[in-house]
Specification:
The chain is an alpha/beta fold. It folds into four domains: 16-51, no CATH class; 62-207, Rossmann fold (3-Layer(aba) Sandwich); 221-258, no CATH class; 261-436, no CATH class. The protein is 38% helix and 20% strand. The chain has a four-stranded parallel β-sheet with strand order 13-12-14-15, with helices on both faces. It has a three-stranded antiparallel β-sheet with strand order 1-2-3, with no helix packed on it. A three-stranded parallel β-sheet has the order 4-8-9, with helices on one face. The longest helix is centred in the C-terminal third of the chain and has 20 residues, at 389-408. It is globular, with a radius of gyration of 28 Å. The model is unreliable at 1-40 (pLDDT under 50).
Length: 440
C-alpha cells in the first residue's frame, strides 16, 4: 500500500552536482543504507562519501521493519546510541523500551495504552546483569523478558516503539502479519491507518486482512506484484489495482473466500446461528419472500463478536468499492439483554451517519422466546441453562427440532410463528421495504 509516492527525492534537493553526464547512484548494505557515489562523466568515478539517509532519531527518514525482525540476541546495554539508532533488526529494543517507559517522555501514555490493548499488560524494564531487560514484571525483581516471548510480541513492541513518536517519517514494512494473531493484526492496522496522517507507509503483504483493512482508506493505493520467468530470469510486474473487479481478484488470490459472504443487496447480522437459521430458512421464505435472493443473513457467533463482524463487513465493501456502498443496507439485530443493549448503543454511536433503524435490539432477552407456544417449555429449559458448550448444543438441537417441525407443518407453523414471532416478522418487512422500494 503506497500513497503520495512522489516526495522521496526531496531529501536530495539541496545537493548540487556538476558534469556533462552526471548520474547519482546509491550503494549501501544489503537493505540500501550506506554512502553515495558520483560519476561526473561516464568514465570518471568520484566517491562523495555522503550519507544516503541518517539512521539516528530524530533525524532519520526511514524506519525499516523487514520480515526477519527478531534478532539472535537482545542487547542489554542501555544508552542513548542504542535507544535512537535505527537498525534493521530489534536487537536494541530494550534501550528503546527503557526510553518509552519514562513517565516524563511524550509517548509514555500512548505506549502504555497500546501495550494494554495489544498484550493486556504493561511493559517495563528492570536491572539485569550489566544493563537492563524489558518485559512483564511479575514481582519486584522477577521479569518475563521480551526475549522469552513470541516473535509476534517482539514485532509488535518494535512497531509500537517507533509509531508512538514518529512524525513525517517513512515506514518500510514487510509482511506485518508475521507471527501476529489476526485480532492483534487488526489493531495494528488500525494504528497504522491513524498514524498515516503524519507518516508514509510502504507495506508488502500476503494477508487479505491487511489488504482489505488498509486499502479501504481513500488515501491508499494498492499495487499487485507478480513474477514470471522471462528467458530464465525472474521478472516482476507491478500494476496499480483500481476497479472493483480487480480488488476482488486480489482478495481471492490472497485466500479470501468471497463465496462465504458473496455480494447481496443487503445484509442482516444476527447474534447467534440459531436465530440466523430460523430467520433464513423459515421466516424469510414464508413471510418476506422478496428477501430470499436479496438479503444475506450472517451469524456473528455471540454478542461479543457482533461489532467485529460489522466492522469487517464494512471494511470489505469499502475496500471493494472505495465508497460506503452498503450504507443503510445492512442491519444488526441482537437479543434484548443488557449486553445486547450496550453493543447496539456502541454501534449507533460509532456509526452516527447510519439510520438508527439499522441497529436493533429485540424485546426478548433470548431468540428462543419467539418460538411457537408449543415449544415454550423446552425453550425455557434451554434459556435457563448456564452459559457454556452444553447450552449452545441444546440451543442448536432445539432450533433444528423447531425448523424440522415448521417445514413439515408449514401452514400451522406460519400461523403460530405469525403470533409468537410477530416482532421479528415486522422487522423483516421493514427490511424488505428498504431493499425493494426504488430510491426516491
Amino acid at each position: 500500500m503506497v500513497s503520495n509516492e512522489s516526495f522521496i527525492g526531496t531529501r536530495f534537493q539541496n545537493i548540487n552536482f556538476t558534469g556533462n553526464s552526471a548520474s547519482f547512484h546509491a550503494i549501501g548494505t544489503s537493505k540500501g543504507f550506506g554512502s553515495a557515489n558520483f560519476w561526473p562523466t561516464p568514465t570518471q568515478r568520484q566517491d562523495c562519501s555522503i550519507p544516503v539517509f541518517q539512521t539516528v532519531e530524530p533525524h532519520n527518514l526511514i524506519y525499516p521493519f523487514l520480515s526477519r525482525r527478531k534478532p539472535a540476541a537482545f542487547s542489554e546495554q542501555i544508552n542513548k546510541t542504542n535507544a535512537r539508532t535505527i537498525r534493521e533488526d530489534l536487537s536494541c529494543l530494550y534501550s528503546r523500551l527503557d526510553q518509552l517507559i519514562n513517565p516524563d517522555s511524550k509517548p509514555f501514555r500512548e505506549f502504555r495504552e497500546l501495550c494494554k490493548e495489544f498484550f493486556g499488560f504493561n511493559i517495563t524494564c528492570i536491572l539485569e546483569g550489566q544493563g537492563k531487560k524489558g518485559g512483564l514484571l511479575i514481582s519486584d525483581d522477577t521479569l518475563i523478558p521480551v526475549d522469552q516471548m513470541g516473535e509476534g510480541t517482539t514485532s509488535l513492541l518494535g512497531f509500537i516503539a517507533s509509531l508512538c513518536s514518529a512524525k513525517n517519517k517513512i515506514f518500510l514494512i514487510e509482511e506485518p502479519e508475521n507471527d501476529i494473531h489476526p485480532k492483534a493484526l487488526k489493531v495494528l492496522l488500525n494504528l497504522i491507518a491513524s498514524k498515516s496522517a503524519d507518516n508514509q507507509f510502504f507495506i508488502s503483504t500476503h494477508s487479505n486482512i491487511a489488504v482489505k483493512q488498509l486499502c479501504g482508506h481513500t488515501d491508499s493505493k494498492l499495487f499487485h506484484v507478480s513474477m514470471k520467468l522471462e528467458n530464465q530470469i525472474p521478472t516482476s510486474t507491478v500494476y496499480e489495482v483500481t476497479d472493483a473487479g480487480a480488488r476482488l481478484n486480489v482478495l481471492n488470490e490472497l485466500g479470501y473466500e468471497l463465496h462465504d459472504l458473496d455480494l447481496w443487496a443487503g445484509y442482516l447480522i444476527l447474534e447467534e446461528s440459531t436465530a440466523e437459521r430460523i430467520i433464513r430458512d423459515f421466516l424469510i421464505p414464508n413471510f418476506t419472500p422478496k428477501l430470499c435472493a436479496r438479503l444475506k443473513t450472517v451469524s456473528a457467533g455471540g454478542t461479543n463478536r457482533v461489532e467485529l463482524v460489522f466492522d469487517d463487513f464494512l471494511r470489505l465493501f469499502v475496500f471493494i468499492h472505495l465508497e460506503p456502498t452498503y450504507q443503510g443496507k445492512a442491519w444488526v439485530a441482537i437479543d434484548g439483554d443488557a449486553e445486547g443493549e450496550s453493543v447496539i448503543q456502541r454501534l449507533a454511536k460509532k456509526f452516527p451517519s447510519w439510520p438508527t433503524s439499522s441497529f436493533r435490539v429485540f424485546s426478548k432477552p433470548s431468540f428462543e422466546g419467539y418460538y411457537p407456544v408449543r415449544f415454550s417449555e423446552e425453550a425455557s429449559n434451554v434459556i435457563n441453562l448456564p452459559n457454556g458448550p452444553d447450552r449452545n448444543r441444546e440451543k442448536g438441537d432445539l432450533a433444528i427440532k423447531v425448523l424440522d417441525w415448521a417445514v413439515s407443518n408449514r401452514a400451522d407453523a406460519k400461523k403460530e410463528f405469525s403470533e409468537s414471532a410477530a416482532e421479528i416478522i415486522q422487522f423483516l418487512k421493514e427490511i424488505e421495504v428498504g431493499l425493494t422500494q426504488p430510491a426516491s
